[in-house]
Design goal:
79% helix, elongated
C-alpha cells in the first residue's frame, strides 16, 4: 500500500515493493502474478479493513430499538473510517487510473460502495418491516444515507487534495445532520 500511495499506480514498481517488504522480487511474484493483481489485493484489503470496523454496527441496525441513536453511532464511525487519509488517497489514485484500468475501479466500486449499500439496504428493509422506517426502495435509501454522510468531506478531500485527517467534531456534525435528514425523509 505504501508504495502505491507514495508513487501512484503507474510509477509503483515491484522492485520497490520487494525492497520495502525485505523479500526478493521472486517472492513477490510467487504471491502476485503482476502489479495489477497486487494492487487489487491492496485495494480489496483496504476495503475489507474499513468494512470490518463498521460491520457489527451495520449487522445490528435491523434490530435497533433506538434507530436514530444507532444510525448516529453508525454514521459517526462510517465517516471517520472512510475519510482516513490513506483511503482518500487510494480513492484518488483509483479514479485517476479508471480509464486505463477499469477493472481496478470496478473492483473498488463492487467491493466497497456496492457491497456496503446492499448490506445497509438489508438492515433498512428490516427496519421498514418493523415499522420504524417508511421505505419504498431500501437500496436507494441506503445509498441516500451513505452519500448524506460522506458527500461533503469526501468531495472536499477529492477536489482539494486534502491529506490531513478531519476534525472529529466536524465529521460528527456531518454525520448527525445526515441522520437527521435521512429520518426526516424515511422516518415514521
Amino acid at each position: 500500500r505504501e508504495v502505491f500511495l507514495n508513487n501512484g499506480y503507474p510509477s509503483a514498481s515491484m522492485d520497490e515493493v520487494a525492497a520495502l517488504a525485505d523479500v526478493s522480487k521472486v517472492t513477490v511474484y510467487k504471491y502476485f502474478s503482476d502489479k495489477q493483481s497486487l494492487f487489487i489485493a491492496v485495494v480489496t484489503g483496504a476495503i475489507q479493513d474499513a468494512e470490518a470496523t463498521s460491520r457489527s454496527l451495520v449487522d445490528h441496525l435491523g434490530q435497533s430499538e433506538d434507530i436514530e441513536a444507532d444510525l448516529r453511532t453508525f454514521a459517526h464511525q462510517h465517516i471517520t473510517v472512510v475519510t482516513q487519509p490513506h483511503l482518500i488517497h487510494m480513492r484518488r489514485m483509483i479514479i485517476a487510473e479508471a480509464t486505463r484500468f477499469p477493472e481496478l475501479a470496478n473492483t473498488w466500486h463492487q467491493a466497497g460502495p456496492v457491497r456496503a449499500h446492499a448490506k445497509l439496504a438489508a438492515q433498512i428493509e428490516q427496519l421498514a418491516r418493523r415499522g420504524l422506517l417508511q421505505v419504498a426502495d431500501p437500496l436507494l435509501a441506503a445509498q441516500h444515507l451513505n452519500y448524506l454522510i460522506l458527500s461533503v468531506p469526501v468531495n472536499e478531500a477529492m477536489f482539494t487534495g486534502r491529506d490531513q485527517p478531519y476534525n472529529r467534531r466536524q465529521l460528527h456534525r456531518y454525520a448527525d445532520e445526515a441522520v437527521r435528514v435521512f429520518m426526516a425523509a424515511y422516518g415514521r
